[in-house]
Amino acid sequence: MNGHKVGEYQRDNSGSNSFIYDNSWLNSPGRRSLSLSLPLRPGRITGAAVYNFFDNLLPDSRNIRERMVARFKTQSTEPFDILSQVGRDCVGAIQLLPSGAESLVQS
């Protein structure tokens, strides 16, 4: 968020989504939750709240999502798959980057 690592969005082998806040973010004076549905706390957050938060970063239109799949060669219209390709350019202050990648935002 705004060039700082907040946490990790993950999907396991069963397809379940999870999010975990990074310890550096939890200890940062500027820390805040990504959403009221993703409370700021240590440990893995799972369930519909995680899926819905990341799903809402994408267009609602099924047609547009299918065009994104075709253009970016993603595996499906699922948020994790699409955001793995276009997450650097989300609306607002959030960027989703592959592990080890650096933010485009200068801190």
Layout of strands and helices, then pairs:
Blueprint: E1 7-11, E2 17-21, H1 23-26, E3 44-46, H2 48-55, H3 62-72, H4 79-86
Antiparallel strand pairs: 1-2, 2-3
Give short descriptive properties of this protein.
globular; HipA_N1; alpha+beta; HipA-like regulatory protein
In short:
By secondary structure, this protein is α+β, with helices and mostly antiparallel strands. It contains four helices and three strands, in the order ββαβααα.
Structural account:
- This protein has 107 residues and is α+β, with helices and mostly antiparallel strands.
- The chain has one domain.
- Helices cover 29% and strands 12% of the residues.
- The protein is built from 4 helices and 3 strands.
- Strands 1-2-3 form a 3-stranded antiparallel beta sheet.
- A hairpin with a 5-residue loop joins strand 1 and strand 2.
- The longest helix is centred in the middle third of the chain and has 11 residues.
- It is globular and about 40 Å long.
- The chain starts with 6 loop residues before the first strand and ends in a 21-residue tail after the last helix.
- Strand elements, count: 3
Lateral strand order in the biggest sheet: 1-2-3
- Describe the main β-sheet briefly: 3 strands, antiparallel
Any idea how many domains? 1
Give the SSE order as H and E letters: EEHEHHH
The helix content, as a percent range, equals 25-40%
Round the mean pLDDT to the nearest integer and report it: 89
In terms of DSSP E residues, the strand content is 5-15%
Distance between the termini: 10 Å
User: Which segments are poorly predicted (pLDDT under 50) over 5 or more consecutive residues?
Assistant: none
- Inertia-based shape: globular
CA radius of gyration: 14 Å
* Structural classification: alpha+beta
Count of helical stretches:
4
Protein name: HipA-like regulatory protein
InterPro entries: HipA_N1 (IPR017508)
Organism: Alishewanella agri BL06
